[in-house]
Amino acid sequence: MRNPFLACAAVVLTAAALAACGSSADGNGPEAAGAQRPAASGSAAPGPSATTDATEPAAPPTEEPEASAPAATAEGPKTPADEITPATGTFTKKQKEYLKDRVPKGMDPAAVLQTGQETCDKLRYLVKADRDTAVGAIVTGEVPDAKDAVAGLCTQHQDLVDEAAYGYPDGKHSGKKLRPGVYRSASPTADCSWQIEGAGGKELASGASDTGKSRKITIPDSAVTFTSTGCYAWLPEGAAG
User: Fold this and answer.
1) Per DSSP, what are the bridge partners of residue 227?
2) Please, are residues 69 and 115 in contact by the beta-carbon 8 Å criterion?
3) Could you say which of 65, 81, 106, 224 is the most buried, measured as most Cβ atoms within 10 Å of its Cβ?
């Protein structure tokens, strides 16, 4: 189930990107390196430099526009690392590392870089609003390519990726994927429920919540399966939050 807050974040960030061509938290966007981003559809002129940072997000429109940047993991032959160059200027070392083996032949590398930068921008927006939602968005995959984007372009968010590696999205989890411990729900809906079963399908714990507030559960050593519905994601308790 998609978190509606993520939809609003996507709209806000898309609007900000059109207005200011986006900017990274550490000033490493394509324009900062001299790479030109492709103009958005219907755009009459390019935006200001990537060093310009939006202050507060504008109110989101009612509909979410389609993403304009191509997928960074597109299939097909990739451009050799020594041939990846922007239309103007140069890429930084971090940007080159991120683009390695990610630019399909014939594609503008600045467009691929933009995809990673938008991931960083989205995480920055989310973590300022609610950290658990930001981590949960990585756990569920609603912020795709987060691991690589963070490692190459916005390392200040590495703690979010590290915590997400130990979280659970809604669904059924079993076997070696289960890690005993205490977990809290991140951005649950008003129809959140969970069930923990042991050997032979024996119910060890279950519960439900219609408050939309975070709940805590304990996955014991004896757990064999853990099922969650409407809770969005579960994050390990004790992590920074």
Assistant:
1) 172, 195
2) yes
3) 224
pLDDT digits 0-9 by tens, 132-174: 999 999 999 999 899 999 999 999 999 999 999 999 999 999 9
> For the chain, how many helices (H) and strands (E)?
6, 6
What would the two tokens of residue 230 be? 């409407």
pLDDT value for 123: 97
Helix (H, G, I), strand (E, B) or coil at 82: helix
Residues in the chain: 241
Distance CA 154, CA 92 (A): 13
Cβ atoms within 10 Å of 100's Cβ, excluding its own: 14
CB atoms within 10 A of CB 77: 8
Strand 216-219 versus strand 203-209 pairing type: unpaired
Tell me, what's the pLDDT at 71? Answer: 45
Tokens of 105: 């032949």
Q: Match 């999205």 to its residue by tokens.
A: 169
Strands 203-209 and 181-186: unpaired
Amino acid at 156: Q
